Amino acid sequence: MGSCTITVNVGASAAAATGNTITISNSTTPTPAATPAPSSVNFDIAVAPAVVQIALPQTGQMNQVPSMCYPLSATCINSPVGSDGYGYASGPYDIPYGVAWAYNGYTDLVPPVRFTSGSAANGSACPSGQLVESDNLTGLMWQQNPSTTTYKWQDGTVTPNTYPALAAVESLNSGSGYCGYTDWRLPNLNELVSMLNLGQIVPYTWLNTSGFPGVGNFSYWSSTTMVAGSGSSAWVVMLNNTGYGRIATQGKTSSTAPIWAVRGNSATSTAPAKIPQTGQITSYAAGDDGALQAGTAGTNASGRFKSGTLLEADCITDSQTGLMWPKNGIIGFTDSGGSLINQPNYSNTDATLNSITWNNALTAMTKMNTATTKLCGYSDWRLPNFAELRSLINYGQVNYSIASNWLNDQGFSGVQNAMYWTSTILASTPSSTRWLINMGTGEASFNGQSNPYPVLPVRGGGAAGS
């Protein structure tokens, strides 16, 4: 009688499979003498990741924009009904949607304190010049004072190419490491975006007063590549006083930017707002987003989007966030003359009838909720905020092509590769400017509220984000 032990290493990729083993033993099958059985066989099997539902955090926007401004003026406004900062009614208060780290009415914030000073790996104080700060919302640890030195993401002047920004972060792990830690890395795009507070005018100045005095007036590199085209650009978050938090790309070999190192994994923390993976699975350099794939699993998961049935047949639910969306990405909100209609056309196929101004978008949500025929039977549709709309972006699948959109392969239809309105107001010019997300590329930018853009409503959310 022969004996064979089969070890199966299970993971989202062959590399990730190592160490996660299932052992199957069989000692009952006879083994012919001429072909002796091996004592063991190892297989690496890549399996589709499960969807982990997360709670999206508030954007930072409150009942006034900028947050807690006074007195009211053209540069200090009350959040309009239906906007991000207005949120939903909770007793006598209006609470913005998402994990309530910024505003929670009469109850405690979640977490009670957003940032706290961190300690070294051995529990002692960090050495001078190596101070760190823990984000209690996401479970990540960041440098308090990142260097202002700028680097190229990729140096194409040498063969083989080098990756200066990634190398600069890796240098923090030499010896005993930065503050005693040797697992520092360049943050992926979702991690870097988590440090925005869109209720404040300039991101870096808010961060300076929140425990990060060394964050500067820059755009910062992420480890995430813009996969559309040749992969020659990487994503940055503009923390400066001109970008106000914009999400954009810069050439890897032609542009320079500073780095802001991070460590930890939100997916394994007990923090209330876990950060999802970006969706990037292709690696362009050691230590980049595609190589590490940090964050909660599910962005690429098969079955992430669940189509409704019966009354909900025209809607789709994102299992990663718990939010419900229309299947049709171009609901008709206007007639051919551009006037809002009282009964939205849920089966519309003309994209021009979905493109409206921001104020009309808020009104269109009211008309959806009071129409004789309500989408999927619900009367709580609203304009999604910055975080909610961006949660639909898969940065491993972004595409410049107008004719192609990843979401349309996941059960949606008609979603355009175009800028879509969010309910979030630009804090620097709150009377006139609103945030937009490009559903094709994942870029985040802003424009005047009187310009027409497409609208994709959402429902669900709340303090728990689901």
Structural class: mainly beta
Report the sheet with the most strands, covering strand number, pairing sense and barrel closure: 4 strands, antiparallel
Which ranges are low-confidence, i.e. pLDDT below 50, for 5 or more consecutive residues? Answer: 1-44
Number of separate strands: 26
Shape: globular
Helical percent range?
under 10%
Strand percentage? 15-25%
Q: What is the topology, as strand order, of the major beta sheet? A: 8-9-10-16
How does this structure look, described?
It is globular, with a radius of gyration of 24 Å. The protein has helices at 14-17, 164-170, 189-193, 203-208, 289-292, 358-370, 386-390, and strands at residues 4-11, 21-26, 40-46, 64-65, 77-78, 88-90, 93-95, 115-117, 132-135, 141-143, 151-152, 219-226, 233-238, 247-251, 256-257, 262-263, 305-307, 315-318, 324-326, 332-334, 340-345, 355-356, 419-425, 433-438, 444-448, 453-454. It contains seven helices and 26 strands. The protein has a four-stranded antiparallel beta sheet, with no helix packed on it. The protein has a three-stranded mixed beta sheet with strand order 2-1-3. A three-stranded antiparallel beta sheet has the order 12-13-14. It is mainly β and 466 residues long. Strand 6 and strand 7 (93-95) form a beta hairpin. The longest helix is centred in the last third of the chain and has 13 residues, at 358-370.
